Every structure is written in C-alpha cells, then in structure tokens.
Amino acid sequence: MSLSSALSIAQSALLSTSRQTSVVTRNVADASNPDYARRTGVVVSTAPGARMVTIQRAVDQQLFRQNIIAISAWSGQSTLAGGLDRLQLAVNGVDNASSASTAIGKLHNALQLYATTPSNPNVGATVVDAAKQAIRSLNDGTQAIQAFRAETDTQIAASVSELNQLLAQFEDVNKTIVSGTRTGSDVSDALDKRDALLKRIAAHVPVTTHMRADNDMVITTTNGITMFETVARPVSFAPSAAYSPGMAGSTVYIDNVPVSGGANEASGKLAGLLQLRDTTGATMQAQLDEIARGLISAFAESAPPLPDAAGLFTWNGAPGVPANLVNGLAGRISVNAAFDPERGGNVTLLRDGGANGAGYVANAAGTASFSDRLIALGDRLDQPMAFSPAAGIAASSSVTAYSASAIGWLDHARQQATTQADTKEALASRTAEALSNATGVNIDAEMSLMLDLEHTYQASARLLTTVDEMLKTLLNAV
Amino acid sequence: MKAVSVSSAAISNAMRYSQMRMQVDLVKAQKEMDTGKVADTGLALGARSAQAVNFHRDLDRLNALVDSNALVSARLKSTQDSLGQIVSATQNLVNVLTVAVAGDASDSVTSKSGSTMLQSLSTMLNASMNGEYLFAGTNTDVRPLDDYTSPASPARAAFDAAFLGHFGFSKDDPAAAGISAADIETFMTSVVEPQFMGAGWEANWSSATDQAIVSRIALNETTQTSVSANNEGLRKVAMAATLAFEAFSGNLSAEAKTAVARRAQALAGEAIADLGQLQSQAGIVQNRVSDASARINTQIDLFEKHIIALEGVDPYEAANRVSDLMSHIQTSFALTARIHQLSLLNYLT
Question: How does pLDDT run across A388-442, given as a tens digit for each residue?
C-alpha cells in the first residue's frame, strides 16, 4: 500500500501513455497512406490502478465493400472507354477522316463526276484513286483491329499474371493474419496490407468477400467463382501472339472456371479487356468485312444469265461475288488490276463493263459518253442490300448507309462506356473519400490527443518525482 | 470516440477530383469555343453520329452534284448557241432558196449558199466542249459530221454515186440538162431522201449516236442532256443544203433546178420548225438542270442547318462556360491553399 503502490501506478501510467504516444505517432506518420486504417490505443483497466493498452483498428466493412465494387466498375469501364477511343482513332481517324464511310462518300462523288464526263479517262482515274482510298481504309482498319486485339491479349496476359501475384501475396498475408489472430498479437499492419491487396485485386476482377473465424477471408468473384479460400486459386490464360479476323481469343480461367467478358456492364479490368478483344474487336471486324462485301457486290458486273462477277473491287475469291459474311474480307479486298491504270489496266472498263469477258460489256457500241453504267453504279451504292445480323447493325441498308451506321455503332459504345466510366470514377472517388473519412487519420485530432497524452505524461512524471521526494524526505528523517 | 470524422487525406484530396474534372471540362469548352462544334462529335452524339456522318456525306454529294450540274449547264448552253446559229443560217438558206424558186438568183449564188450552209452546219455540229463533241450523242470522241464540201467526203461520194446510179450519168454531164422536173422529183424522193432520213445518214453522214448523254442532275433524277446530230431537223437542213449545192452546181435544166429549189425550200422551212422544237426541248432540260441546282442549294442550306443543330454549340454559351470554369478553378486553388494552411501544427509551439 501507500507510496510504493502510488509509484507503481504512476509507472504503469507512464508506460500506457508512451504506448499510446507510439500509436499516435504511427497514425500521424501514415496519415497520407490511403490504405492505412486509424489505430486507437484503448486503455483498459484491469487490477486496481493497473492499465493495459489494446490497439484497435478502425474498420467500416460496409464502406470498404462499396469502395471495392466501385473500383471494379470504374476500372472495367475506363478500360473499355480507353480501348474504344483507341480503336476509334485507329480505324476511323480524327473526325472519321480515314473511315470507310468517308472513303465511300468520296468514291461516290468521283463516280458522279465521271458519270458527267465519261469520255475523260483522267476523271475515271480519280474513281480508281478513290476506290484505292476505300481499300486502304478497309485494309488498314482490319490491320488496326487485329493489332489492337493482339495488344489487348497481351494486356490480358499481364493482368492475369498480376492477379496471380496478388493472390499469392494475399495468401501470405492472410496466413499471417489468421495465425496472429489465433495467438492474439497485433495484426493491424497485416490487415492494412490485406485490404490494399483486395483493392488491387478488385481492379482486375469484381470480388465479394466472406469472413470466417480468426479473420480468415474468402474471396469469390461476383459470379461465384472461388478465387481464394485458404490457398490462392490459379488464374490461367494462354495468350495468342497474333490475331486474324474470325479467330477467337483464348479464355481466362479462374480456378478452372471460364470467365466471360460479360454483356454490357464490364466490371473489372479483365472483363473490360475481354469485351474489347472478343465483342468489340470482332464486331467491328465483321462490320468492315460487310462493308467490303457491300462494295464488291455494288461494283460487281452483272449480265444475267451470266453469274455476277467482281468488278472494280475484287478479292481472293474472285470472280465470284461473296454472298455472305466472309471473315477478314476487309483485309483481302483490292482494286481489280484490270481497272487500274498504274498496273496497265483500263479505266474505261468501269464505264463500259466487260472486265470479266465480252459477255459483261454494257456499252456495246463503245461510245465515249456512255454514262448509263456509271449512273447505275452510283445508284447501286445507294441501294439496300442484306447485311449479316452478326455484325450488330440493322440488317438491310445501302453500303453507304451501312458504313455510316458502323461509325454510329462505335460512337454509341464509346459514349456509353465514357459516361459509365465518368460516373463510376465519381463513385469510386466518393466511396474512397467516405472510407478515408471513416477509417483515415485526422492529424489535428491526433495532435490534440498528443497534447492530452503529453499532459498525462507530465502529470505522471510529476507524481513520480513527488513520491520520490516524499520517500527522500522520509529517508532523511530516519 | 468521434461522432463525425474527417480524415486529413480526405481534406487535402477533397478538391483534387473536382479540380481534375473542371480542367478536363475547360479544355473541352475551349475547343468548343474555338470551333463552334462539340469537342468530340462521336461522344456527344453517340449512336446519332451515324446521322451526322450521313448528313456530311450527303452534303458533299450535293455539292458535287451542283458542280457537275454546272458542267451539264455549260454543255446545254453551248448546244443552245449552236442550235441558234444553225437556225439563223437555215433562215438565210430559206431566203436564198425563195429567190431561187422565183428564178431570180444566179445558180452560183444558190449553190454557194448551199455549200456555205453545209460548211457552217458541220462547223456547228462539230462544236466541242471540254473535249467532247456536243452533237455526237454518246460517241463524243468522234467528229459527228465530215465536211461535205471536201472531195474526200463519203457523203458526197455517196450522193454522186446515187446520182450516177439513178440517171446513168453524173450531174455535170451534158445529158443532165435533159432531166425533167418529174424525174428529179422521183430521184429526190426515192434516192436522196433515204440518204438523209433513212439508213444512209448514219452510214455516210453522221457518226453520232441516237442515244443522248444521260446525266444525273439530282440525287434521284437523271435526264438526257445532249442533242444528237441525228435529229430530224438537222438532217433536213443537211438535205436542203446538199440539194441546193449539188443541183445548182450541175448541168440541170432550169425546170429541174426550180423543182429542187422548191423541195429544198420546203425542207429548210420544216427544219426551222423542227429546230425550234429542239431548242425548246433543250431549253426545258436547261431549266430542269437549273431548277435541280436551285433545289439542291436549298437542300444544302437545310443540311447545313441540320448539321449545326446536331454538332454545333452556342459560342456564347461556350465562352461563358470557359470563364465560369476558370473562376471555379481559381476559387478551388485558393481554397486548397487555405486548407493546407489550416493545421493545428501552426498553433503548437
């Protein structure tokens, strides 16, 4: 009793205050770390006078869950929006300048001019030039789309390997947490690390989490595929080095279950990339192929009962005219050498017909100002034809309108993805802010706490010296 | 325990997100102010950008049509001019023939006026523009009419051969003086006429085609925009002139010459009526073309309006947006700076 017990109480006060100070210091040090959750040193009284400091970590599961959902959605949509922007630039160019639609418009105009002065082969040569431009647009578009798909494939592979790494780290951290919780040591740092890892995993794949005993966490994707349960499940993917039109990309497997790109709302970077590679890339390619088919059949030479034969625009299956969607046609379409003056061809075949033999000649007399066929060709560019519904656009329209619709289709997807990305970005930053408010550090609060602690420490120290003096007085008196 | 909490990180990052958004918007608004169009048409219109693309393309096509219509109009204008000249030359021929019918003109004058008519007819029908013969039908790279007065003319050779074949001697033969008016009438009807009105015209005279040049003058309107040298009126002129030239340069009797002059006069008269018809047809087409161009120009205005309605932005609104955003950004800069000054640390000594 008495002085010595007062001394020991003051001692324990000093101890708990210094521990609390270290918690405050740690809080201040990590104030700007977004993955850090505030610790509180809670003082618990045990035996009379004796106090113990236990460290609690601020948690808000609800907000955290909202945050990782928002991160998944944002990451998916911004991947999609960025990819669509790149595709739009690569295929259609700035202000659609290099799009097939623009090239077809120019071809139409050149054709109109040639139809007005059919006797002038120089004007005819401008039609061939315009046709070459259309072909360049289609060929380059095909190349750009396939290169884009290959590049996306590489990104998927990178995303998958990062995901595997993250899951492996997650496994380590989770192990530490479980064993730490069992032994009752402070696992706050490991918990911070686990939350940070979870946020990074969520950027790739949308996840839901379940807590089990001893802080053990289970991760499944929102579709219910297990990603982590005691051990990390493998994410596997076999990348393809190059893509060609019509080639299907290989699938990503999590725990041997295939992952799909999802329909419209891509959530998570992986889903966004899969959607770009498989849905967007493949559909755009199909659209270009259909535009190519439209051009070949609009310029085909027809002379019933003879079969239609490829005219100004030809392909590797010429002289036949493709009747259905041909994968990669846009990459294989070319200007018929018979029409091309640079390759010894004759432009007037366009006016007279007959590139496929005398049976197809429309201008039998060979007169110089025969414009009927040229006018008919212009009309055919405006005549509706049936397009494959697989390409995602209204099935019956003229090739001119179809090429414009292809631009509309892409822009629609871009608009959707960009709007979504903007909304989700706002949501992600809002939830991150709310989470930070709920679990983050306020330096001012910590500093005022520090003042308190300082006072407590001063008082305890004062007590110690006072008791010391009292003891000294006592000893001197003896 | 705190009832309300705000973290230091949240305070210092509070402005960051909105700051970034505002700066993105500022770039957009500036671009819109400069161009008067939305910054990214595709993003702003989405699926409707197909509509904008169609409008742009149609606009280009309409402008191309206006250009090509100008070409067609020029061709028709030249055609009209040539037809007018042919009509007035034919009128002169009629005048000379009227005198010849009365027997008051010297043979050489009548013959000369016939040959002049033939020469000017071939000059005018061979008029070309932009490298195309105006009256050649669609066969515009071949001269539609040879010069009849040149000795190499196949038409002339054919006429001479026909004369010889019918009468057994040439027109310069003294025996030609014995041909009666009735004989020459028969010759004109059964031999000369098929040369001009029948198959002989295309065999010996004209390399033009009956088929005229067809042009598209509006998005869905095509029309014939040339006059062929094979037109009946032009054939009649040629026949009248040839008869005058040939009959009055040969040894025919006065009786026969008068009969020829009468026939030629009648033909030239008919030709003037036919040519008038032709002129008015060409005029109608000219009118159609200029109407089409006017219509297209109205359409162009309309399309431009549509395009502006789709893609345009109000420049004043964009300017306001720019200044608004700028003051917002300034405020938020100032706020950020003030917030960063706001710290308990400044008051702890």
Answer: 888 888 778 899 999 999 999 999 999 999 999 999 999 999 999 999 988 989 8
B3-24 CB burial, b ≥16 within 10 A, e <16: eebbbbbbbebbbebebeebee
Integer Cα distance of A394 and A384 in angstroms: 11
Residue B342 CB-half CA count within 13 A:
10
Q: What would the two tokens of residue A250 be?
A: 């290989």
H helix or E strand, kind and range, residue B133: strand B132-133
Q: What is the DSSP string of A351-376?
A: HH--TT-GGG-S-TT--TT--HHHHH
Q: What are the chain B neighbours of A416 within 8 Å (beta carbons)?
A: 46
Write out the two tokens for B179: 């041909």
Q: Does A378 touch chain B (CB under 8 A)?
A: yes
Backbone angles phi, psi at B173, to 5 degrees: -70, 140
This complex has an ipTM of 0.85
- Element holding A258 (H helix, E strand): strand A257-259
Please check whether residue A83 is in contact with residue A278, taking contact to mean a CB–CB distance below 8 angstroms. no
How many Cα atoms are found within 13 Å in the side-chain-facing hemisphere of B40? 17
Give phi and psi for A466, each to the nearest 5. Answer: -60, -50
Backbone angles phi, psi at A54, to 5 degrees: -110, 145
A96: contact with B, CB 8 A cutoff: yes
pTM: 0.86
pLDDT in tens, A36-67: 999 988 888 776 666 777 888 888 889 999 99
Which of A117, A126, A351 would best serve as a mutation to test chain B binding (most B beta carbons within 10 A)? A117
Residue B33: how many CA atoms within 13 Å on its side-chain side? 14
Residue B340 contacts by C-beta under 8 Å, 6 or more apart in sequence?
A: B12
Alpha-carbon B163 to chain mean position? 43
Alpha helices in A3-120 (DSSP H): 3-29, 61-92, 100-116
